[in-house]
Design a protein that fits this description.
heterodimer, A: 222 residues, alpha/beta, Rossmann fold, three-stranded antiparallel sheet, 8 helices, elongated, B: two-stranded parallel ribbon, 2 strands, binds iron/sulfur cluster
Chain lengths: 222, 116
């Protein structure tokens, strides 16, 4: 899932300072699951904003709405009647959703209420962690399911750097060394000989180095 | 028991404090409450095992939210008491009412800013 984190309240207050009426928009997919921008978070932020502005003597009308997905036109077009006379849209969807809504309603300011952070998993209830950077050429077969692009702070491909210590990354003692995790996997699967295979230089043109990416499936087009 | 507790205390019944979500507490403030206390069963005695412990975390989170939006986290509290402790309930109600009175009215009560 895409994991996001709500922006600090003061930053959000500043973003909507100029408006008396906004639409606070959430998304029912990733940001709901990572508890950053689903119906619950929308309700909480809306309530906080109303109270804060009431206290300041500048009441704000906050309309709450949650789209099934903010990254699919079929849902985004349904927003038109809901926007009504809102002066701006404050979105708790991920960065993709925020942009896509803006592309559809070009006269509206669509403001981000969350910082979209990474593609990851829920390691446990209330804890999310990064797993994939979308490099466009997956090598999880070679590293037995541990991504060196993501889980090694330096995205190294042939073993750890000198900063690996006691299984931790030199970047932080909270972060496991990605290469330690890979070596542990080789041992676990009795495949340590795989560690000896030298990985050639990675072609990063499938990743962000090739610019924004696009995927087309002609058979699905209408 | 004919115990008296301050008449301004309104009781919202829930089957278990585990049902109380952050938004419920925020809504009370949005609708003008000056203070809120969540009265849960004694820790370790939840019929649903962890309802009151979950409520405790949610009250803490709501406190933080009330602080960040300027209403003040001191206006909310969680207490643990058994249903046999009517006396304690009356006492907490008085305690909380007194505390909230000191804090003054809810600064976000509708129309208040305009009237002031
Ligand atoms: S190798 Fe690339 S595609 Fe595969 S998990 Fe890592 S970043 Fe994602
Ligand atoms: S310590 Fe490990 S994870 Fe951190 S940068 Fe070095 S090799 Fe990568």
């Amino acid at each position: 899932m895409i994991v996001a984190n709500r922006k600090p309240f003061e930053e959000i207050v500043e973003l909507v300072k100029a408006y008396k009426s906004i639409l606070l928009l959430g998304c029912n997919e990733c940001v709901t699951v990572c508890a950053a921008g689903g119906a619950k978070e929308v309700a909480v932020l809306a309530s906080e904003l109303r109270m804060h502005r009431e206290k300041e003597g500048q009441p704000i009308e906050v309309k709450e709405h949650v789209l099934e997905r903010n990254c699919d036109p079929e849902y985004v077009v349904s927003l038109a009647p809901i926007i009504g006379d809102a002066e701006a849209i404050l979105s708790m969807a991920c960065g993709c959703g925020i942009q896509f809504v803006g592309e559809h309603y070009r006269q509206m300011r669509v403001l981000p209420a969350v910082n979209t952070t990474f593609d990851g998993v829920a390691e446990e209830q209330g804890v999310w962690a990064e797993r994939c950077l979308g490099c466009g050429n997956c090598i999880l077969d070679k590293t037995l399911g541990v991504c060196p692009v993501t889980r090694c702070a330096k995205s190294l491909f042939n073993g750890p750097c000198g900063g690996s210590h006691g299984g931790k990354c030199e970047v932080s003692d909270e972060t496991p060394c990605g290469w330690q995790l890979i070596v542990d996997r080789y041992k676990e699967m009795n495949m340590l000989d795989k560690y000896m295979e030298i990985q050639p230089l990675k072609n990063w043109s499938t990743s962000r180095d090739g610019g924004p990416r696009k995927r087309v499936r002609e058979d699905l087009k209408l | 028991m004919r115990l008296t507790y301050p008449p301004n205390v309104k009781i919202v019944k829930v089957p278990c404090t585990g049902r109380v979500d952050i938004i419920h507490m925020l809504k009370a403030f949005e609708n003008g409450a000056d203070g809120v206390f969540v009265a849960g069963c004694l820790e370790g005695e939840c019929h649903f095992l962890k309802g009151n412990l979950r409520a405790k975390k949610r009250v803490a989170q709501t406190k933080a939210l009330l602080d960040e939006c300027g209403i003040g986290g001191d206006r909310i509290a969680m207490y643990n008491l058994s249903s046999a402790q009517g006396q304690r309930f009356a006492e907490i109600s008085r305690e909380m009412t007194e505390k909230v009175r000191q804090l003054g009215p809810n600064p976000a009560r509708k129309g208040r800013a305009k009237a002031a």
